[in-house]
Amino acid sequence: MDFLHYGLEVLNFTNILWLVIGAVVGAILGALPGQCATTGIAMFIPLTFNLEPVTALITLGAIYVMGSYGGNITAILINTPGTSDSFFMTFDGYPMTKRGEGLRAIGISTISAFIGGMIGILALLTIAPPLAQAAYKFGPLEKFLTMTMGLVIIISLSKDKMLKGLLSACIGFLCSMIGMDIISGVTRFTFGINQIYDGLPLVPVILGMFAVSQVLALVAEKSETIAVDRFATHGSVFISFKDIMSMKVNNIRASIIGTLVGIIPGAGTTVAAGISYDLAKKSDPHPESFGKGNEQGLASVSAANNAVVGGSLIPLLTLGIPGNGTAAVFLGGLYIHGLAPGTKLFTTDAEQIYGLFWGLILAQFFILIIGFYGAPIYEKVTKVPNNILIPIVGCVCILGAYVFRYQSFDALLILFFGIVGYYFRKADIPMIPFILAYILGQGTEMQLRRTLFLMEGRIGSVLLRPLPLALLAIDLLFLISPFWGNIKKLFHKK
Amino acid sequence: MDDKSTKKIFNHNYILIIFLYIWSFIFLFTIPSIKDVDSRLFPYIISILTIVSATLLLLKTYYNWGKKEDPVNFSGTLSALFMAVLLLVYTVAIATIGFYLATPLYLFISMWILGQKNIKLIFTISLLTPLVVYLFFDLLLKLQIPKGFLFS
To answer: Which of A235, A290, A243 shows the shortest CA–CA distance to A102?
Structure first.
């Protein structure tokens, strides 16, 4: 089996060391309010540029896993979720802390996150390779429709911000067209700026939009250190096998929900946690105890949160459709290291991808280590004041931009995109359509032009094949879905 | 009547719309100068799509179509812009005096401005950060950190 074969090759000292670094960085960023796995991956893409692709992917994968888990402990202990992903964790985790069961809550959350993460990766391992094989049958039209599908789904999920989502995607496409056209080799829209002859570089754009804009937003918020109540904790972080078994239904159900929601682009962790929590509450004999420190509620949210990671990587690695914002930035990491989603990733570049899978599995064990042994240290991380954190993150961002191509221009570019990203955040413009359109822009254009070239004069016969028709139907379905309520109302009136 | 109640609040969407119109029209006017005819198709599609979408947003904003948007809070933007200027100065400083000299200065000033008053802590972080970068990125990762004219 490829997975086991490559496992032995990639699990060397260097890769394990980078896995540990990624896990620690992810865990810290996940705990810090205002920071998240997305920022961590954005900051580490340029810094891992000199590493072997497999090592870089393992590092980024570890940041992703631990960044998702990172906010759990602080949400439980001090009622401060590092990211919105851990928001549901405060519902039952913090009440448990208030009654002196904080360590037990961390134990439950850790075990459930581990189970959720493992189930998500199991799904990734079993679904991704055959799906990638199916992607082999994709021609230019199918590829074009798949690329637009990701965008259509993400824009349609913007709900009442759909128009802004569309405009955000348009800006991403406009940025992607700057520089050399990869088919004809002619330059477009560079306006005499030599540094963008090859196009707007990916790293400064991602760093600016996600990390620098976050730095500026934190400065604008003027928040200092988090003021929290701290409660005494008793008992042990280790929970019994009997307790684990009593939560098995919620853990498995929430893990499956998390994986499935992760696969759907744009849905995200909050949706997965919300659905799982709701189902756990409805199926519990004591629903009134939810929100007051119910262990089943806490377990379901933790499992769902971490299962999303594996789920979101399935469409990303096979079809190039990211399940959420972090996955979109992760896609940038793949491209930077010369890897592209699809069949080739599971055949020619199998070492890299199976290395990533191993990295993701090992990162799950770091959840156990940090959860069981690092909670007291971890809590202190959140006490880092913003007036120390902001300058350091700013420094890493500028450094990241410099070391990418060794051009001062890139550092200026991240400042420009930092301000653009800040405006996006303030004006409530969804950022994910922008970054997705920007990353997929060149590919979408290439597939569109290839399609038009191939189907010249026989549009019907090409478009009326089952696969393009199915993809087109999905595109249309998602495009119409936000207006479904209005359409139903229209019919009822008649 | 109260002056404030009759005064129409400026909608920030107009800034976005104007910006997009300018960008799209610059692209539209530049497209004919692209030498390869096939390379013009996608830019045409996207530029026109942008103009159409921006017009829809203009109409939506002007006539208040659909769900009313929450007013955008731009408070703190001046501080954010000041931080952006600080980062710009830091960027220029890296290019001239190098990373290892520019970083302690930048960290010291920015931490102080952002309200950190513990001088010992500021000094420690300002000196430790470049050291960590040197050990981790310069020595371990072999990344070329800009050294500036003093070290070159």
So the answer is: A235
**Mind telling me how many Å the CA of A225 is from chain B's nearest CA?**
11
CB contact under 8 A, A212 and B87: yes
Q: Is A416 helix (H, G, I), strand (E, B) or coil?
A: helix
Asked if B84 and B144 sit in the same domain, the reply is yes
Q: How many residues does chain B have?
A: 152
Cβ-Cβ contacts under 8 Å, A160 against chain B = 66-67
* Cα gap A349→A320, rounded to integer Å: 15
Q: Quote the domain boundaries for residue B121.
A: 77-151
Residue A426 CA to residue A444 CA, distance in Å, equals 29
d(CA B146, CA B152): 9
User: Is residue B107, in this structure, part of any structural domain at all?
Assistant: yes
| A88/A274 Cα distance (integer angstroms) | 7
CB–CB of A387 and B114 under 8 A?
yes
Q: Which residue from A50, A189, A392 is facing B143, i.e. has the nearest CB?
A: A50
**ipTM topping 0.95:** no
Cα–Cα distance, A2 to A189 (Å, whole number): 45
User: Residue B99 in contact with residue A399, Cβ under 8 Å?
Assistant: yes
Q: How many domains does chain B have?
A: 2
Question: Has this prediction a pTM greater than 0.80?
Answer: no
Q: What is the pLDDT of residues B29-62, one digit of tens each?
A: 999 988 888 889 999 999 999 999 999 989 988 8
Q: Is residue B69 part of a domain?
A: no
Residue B71 lies inside a defined structural domain of this protein: no
CA angle A136/A142/A148 to nearest 5° reads 125
Cα–Cα distance, A283 to A228 (Å, whole number): 33
Q: What string of DSSP letters covers A54-111?
A: HHHHHHHHHHHHHHHHHHHHHHHHHS--SSGGGTTHHHHHHHHHHTT-HHHHHHHHHH
Q: Pick B43's closest partner by Cβ from A188, A212, A221.
A: A188
Which residue reads 């208040």 in tokens?
Answer: B64
Contacting residues for A249 by C-beta, under 8 A, at least 6 apart: A283
